[in-house]
Amino acid sequence: MLQQTGIKRNLTSFILLVLTNLFVGSMVGLERTVLPIIGEDEFGLTSTSATLSFIITFGFSKALMNFFAGSLADRFGRKNVLIAGWIVGAFVPLLIITAPAWWVIIFSNVLLGINQGLTWSMTVNMKIDLSSSHQRGLAVGLNEFAGYIGVALFAFITGYLASMYSPRPEPFLIGFGIVLVGLILSFMVPDTSSLVSKNTSNDKQETEPFKKVFLKTSFKNRHLSSVSFAGLTTNLKDGMAWGLFPLFFINTGLSAGQISLIIAIYPATWGIFQLITGPLSDRIGRKILITSGMFIQAIALIGITFGSGFGFWLIASIILGLGTAMVYPTLIASISDVAPTKTRATSLGIYRFWRDSGYAIGALLAGSIADLLSVQWSIGITALFPLLASIYTLVSLRDEKNKGTIEGER
Asked: Major facilitator superfamily (MFS) profile domain: which residues (predicted)?
């Protein structure tokens, strides 16, 4: 049984969780490059909104799972929820490989959303459980680094396999191996629920009802609501990028290898730089990274919209990944800074509900704009949302790093 917090004291468990999240992210990477193309080429989808429907269902199912993951973890234990997420994930590659119709692909992404909501939520919660309060940025940075390296690596691998063989089944056969390794690692890691119980045993603060925590995190507390909005717009942008980047670049005359590299370099940069931005936020504070990171994302999207050429788009994709890396672990750490220990998993689940709703909202909005105007203009208009989030966090976010719960309402 785990006894004390601190990454060094729990290094083996922490490393196991980092490796586990590498494979969690790999499940998303499986379809990052290939699935939008399958929708058009194999199922004859002519509407961009219809093509992006798999991201909409993924986003909403993941968001709902995030919403309930905290309470499930409190009731059944973090490790059990993590294992359950992998069992659900095993059906995803099977359904994609055998799908006779597009609705089966959509259903597979409902399962992928459940898989991600359970597994990714638990890996980040368990790392925060293991870490001391001054290590949260580092812990989240390492978690998100591993996850998005998995996304990038398998986005590139599946894109390459699709160009060498076919979009199905070769790229998705790897998914069975990913699930198997993820399950083995999850069985090896100890549950961190005992640490949470120990840390809250002397906590005099009463546990707040769920409704109160939801309203505070979502609307009433300026700090928490600005973090939630920034998370939503970050994944709104990513939902657009997931669905539209393959469709945008495939019509630019670039080779399959160049397209795969541009698409993969964005989450790769996102993943790698979180190794720096997560711990950096522990030192310099959260606000400066969040506000500037949202602004950089907006600039990168404008560059992709109006730029041209492989080299330019590659650099813009790297900048987009850098801006995302500045905010992604920092937003989670900011929630963890201010949420009481007893309701931290619930607050994180509510934040992740709003954040991952952005996938669905982004795909729905981007698809509608692309059908009305064009894919290019859809990417450009999406840039307005991280720009608005940058302004909102600038005026609303209080940098209360590691200083306990922020009370007060609007």
From this structure: 13-401
Give the separation between CA 125 and CA 198, rounded to whole angstroms. Answer: 16
Phi-psi region of 339 (alpha: psi -120 to 50; beta: other; left: phi over 0): beta
Beta-carbon contacts of 259 under 8 Å, excluding residues fewer than 6 positions away, are: 33, 159, 246, 249, 250
Overall residue count recorded for the chain in this entry: 410
| Residue from 191, 187, 198, 139 nearest 3 by CA | 198
Q: Say how far apart CA 29 and CA 154 lie, in whole Å.
A: 5
The per-residue pLDDT for range 349-360, each reduced to its tens digit, is: 889 899 989 989
> In degrees to the nearest 10, what's the CA dihedral of 73, 24, 393, 351?
-20
* pTM passes above 0.85: no
Q: Tell me how far apart the terminal alpha carbons of the chain are, to the nearest angstrom.
A: 42
